[in-house]
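In response to the reviewer comment on reproducibility (Comment 2.3), we provide here a single inverse folding case reported in full, input and output, so that an independent group could reproduce the run without further information from us. The structure tokens appear first.
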């Protein structure tokens, strides 16, 4: 257990804090004295300036203060004798540390996808939130001004400002100011170098930082990522190669990191051709230096991530030959690994997975065979090479591919994966997308047991201990529809059981995406109505419209409890939802029609159902009115009395008809025909 602090230690700690606070107050007073002193005054002390700067650097104080002191100091004469590069460098270094931390705390940049008012800072330091950091552009203006006033600055100070541009998350979408500033600083350094300034000397690192800044711009500026960033980064790399080949020195040898940054930009665009060309260029450069036993060859070595980038680029490419090119590259890498030609290369499982994804995107019969062959090859390698072990992503790529054409094969692989997981040979982390893929595959098939196979998969996922899975609405709807398509009584019953399961899940977790909608009820209601189970169909119809009233939850009140809320609202409906509601009613109305000639009460039941549309806010169509009209006609034709016990409620029905369709439109003739038919019922 940690020792308890005594009263003496607490007092000492408090005294130390008080002393430090007192010293800080004194330093701030001295800083204000320096900042407010007249230019050329005797009270201005260079020794005091140096002491204050050291205090700010040692105590990690606000860098804005350090730059303000420097700005004041450069106004004095003989500034170049007192302000050194080390002072400016330390101020810039300290600014860079704070700026990087601030940019990291920004959860998301302001792009066209993220509105300005969602830009937030993830920090609990309220003082840091209020403290505004200088931008790289502002720091560069200060550094440039110091250089112009004669302070002998060095390359390392310029580099620190450039490094700041690699962390810019622009406030304006598609405006990579940081990258353009990095190029500007690079150009100034080149100009200084040409004037034989021995302190300013660009290098391969300078170009790499500028390229990295364009990579940042490509990441946070979608438009620039497609236009300027790739070409500007490539131009910088080509310029660096040109300077090296023209004899500017070994410090201009393009490092592998510069190639990797440019490759990364093109890879995210899906430009596999360019990424592969850059990879070959780097490999050629490496061989040239390696064969000459050049000491700089190690700076050009290719490691595994370079080859992974090339494969990734082909996986995002729309080139019809992308899969072939990716597979050819995989073969070449396997040969290089086996021969030891590239010591830093290790072909891993991920490489096989990427090539499988490339083939999977082809969506052809051949692609399924190719993916299976690559998977089998990986499985064979895994017997002797731990770096090429079959993992979950390998199974997912294979299952997704087979699911497009062979659901049985896809499910067989799924259960094989489950078996290996149970044996401890392969980790299994199935997710909702995989289950949905398998279910959708079976639902598109014509196999007799497709519905049962879907049901088995979903129930397995629900019951799985290592998967907190709640089937979404779309998955349930697909399975229920598939059961109802079987046209079998057991299928209808199972569909209704799944509906009840959805209701139970939603009752226990109202935030789940499991609330039944009209597409859930429609196939079940239609199925019961088609086989004459009208009471069951009617009961489900009423049940659906009753559950459409949902609890009200105040958006800003996180303490609201769905289960304890008594208020309710009606969910607004789209035109498609209104159409589906009408279809639900019509399934019941159409189901009553065949019974109208044998059951005298059917016409009344059908009419009651039609008039319920007013209660539930549904919109009957012309077919709705026609079904009920035909039911009354059959009733009249089948029984001796004009109307059996009940008479049609013509006035109510006509009022509903007029409300929905009593206007001039292209179906005016159909409306008048229906109205006349109902009017004739009233004269009997």
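Designed residues, in position order:
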């Amino acid at each position: 257990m940690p020792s308890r602090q005594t009263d003496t230690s607490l007092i000492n700690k408090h005294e130390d804090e008080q002393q430090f606070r007192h010293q800080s107050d004194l330093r701030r007073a001295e800083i204000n004295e320096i900042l407010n002193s007249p230019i050329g005054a005797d009270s201005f002390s260079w020794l005091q300036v140096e002491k204050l700067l050291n205090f700010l650097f040692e105590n990690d104080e606000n860098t804005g203060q350090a730059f303000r002191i420097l700005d004041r100091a450069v106004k004095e004469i003989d500034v170049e004798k007192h302000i050194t590069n080390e002072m400016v460098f330390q101020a810039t270094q300290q600014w860079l540390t704070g700026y990087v931390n601030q940019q990291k705390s920004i959860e998301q940049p302001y792009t066209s996808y993220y509105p300005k008012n969602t830009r937030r800072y993830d920090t609990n330091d309220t003082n840091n939130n209020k403290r505004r950091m200088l931008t790289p552009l502002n720091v560069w203006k200060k550094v440039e001004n110091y250089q112009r006033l004669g302070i002998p600055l060095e390359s390392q100070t310029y580099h620190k400002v450039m490094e700041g541009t690699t962390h810019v998350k622009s406030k304006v979408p598609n405006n990579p100011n940081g990258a353009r500033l990095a190029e500007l600083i690079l150009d100034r350094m080149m100009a200084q170098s040409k004037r034989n300034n021995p302190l300013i000397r660009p290098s391969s690192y300078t170009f790499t930082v500028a390229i990295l800044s364009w990579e940042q711009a490509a990441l946070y500026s979608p438009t620039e990522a497609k236009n300027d960033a790739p070409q500007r980064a490539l131009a910088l790399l080509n310029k660096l190669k040109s300077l090296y080949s023209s004899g500017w020195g070994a410090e201009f040898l393009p490092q592998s990191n510069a190639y990797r940054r440019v490759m990364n930009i093109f890879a995210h665009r899906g430009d596999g051709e360019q990424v592969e060309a850059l990879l070959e260029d780097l490999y050629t450069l490496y061989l040239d230096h390696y064969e000459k036993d050049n000491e700089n060859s190690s700076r050009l070595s290719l490691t595994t991530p370079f080859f992974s980038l090339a494969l990734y680029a082909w996986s995002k490419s729309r080139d019809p030959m992308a899969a072939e090119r990716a597979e050819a590259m995989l073969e070449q890498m396997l040969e290089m690994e086996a021969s030891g030609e590239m010591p830093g290369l290790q072909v891993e499982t991920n490489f096989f997975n990427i090539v499988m994804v490339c083939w999977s995107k082809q969506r052809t019969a051949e692609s399924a065979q190719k993916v299976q062959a690559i998977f089998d090859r990986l499985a064979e390698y895994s017997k002797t090479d731990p770096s090429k072990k079959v993992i979950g992503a390998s199974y997912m790529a294979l299952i997704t591919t087979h699911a497009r054409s062979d659901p049985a094969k896809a499910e067989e692989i799924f259960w094989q994966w489950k078996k290996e997981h149970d044996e401890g040979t392969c980790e299994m982390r199935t997710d909702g997308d995989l289950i949905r893929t398998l279910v959708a595959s079976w639902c598109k098939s014509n196999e007799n047991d497709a519905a049962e196979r879907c049901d088995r998969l979903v129930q397995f996922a629900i019951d799985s201990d290592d998967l907190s899975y709640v089937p979404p609405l779309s998955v349930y709807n697909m399975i229920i529809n598939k059961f109802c398509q079987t046209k079998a009584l057991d299928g209808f019953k199972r569909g209704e059981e799944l509906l009840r399961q959805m209701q139970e899940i939603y009752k226990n977790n109202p935030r789940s995406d499991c609330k039944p909608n009209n597409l859930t009820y429609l196939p079940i209601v239609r199925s019961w109505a088609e086989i004459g189970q009208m009471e069951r169909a009617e009961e489900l119809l009423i049940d659906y419209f009753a559950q459409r009233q949902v609890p009200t939850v105040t958006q800003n009140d996180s303490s609201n409890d769905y289960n304890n809320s008594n208020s309710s609202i009606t969910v607004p409906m789209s035109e498609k939802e209104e159409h589906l509601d009408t279809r639900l009613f019509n399934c019941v109305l159409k189901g009553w029609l065949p019974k109208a000639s044998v059951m005298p009460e059917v016409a009344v039941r059908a009419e009651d159902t039609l008039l319920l549309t007013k209660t539930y806010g549904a919109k009957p169509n012309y077919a709705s009115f026609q079904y009920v009209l035909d039911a009354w006609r059959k009733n009249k034709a089948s029984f001796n009395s004009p109307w059996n016990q009940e008479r049609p409620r013509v006035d109510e029905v006509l009022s509903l008809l007029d409300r929905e369709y009593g206007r001039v439109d292209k179906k005016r003739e159909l409306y008048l025909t229906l109205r006349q038919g109902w009017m004739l019922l009233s004269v009997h």
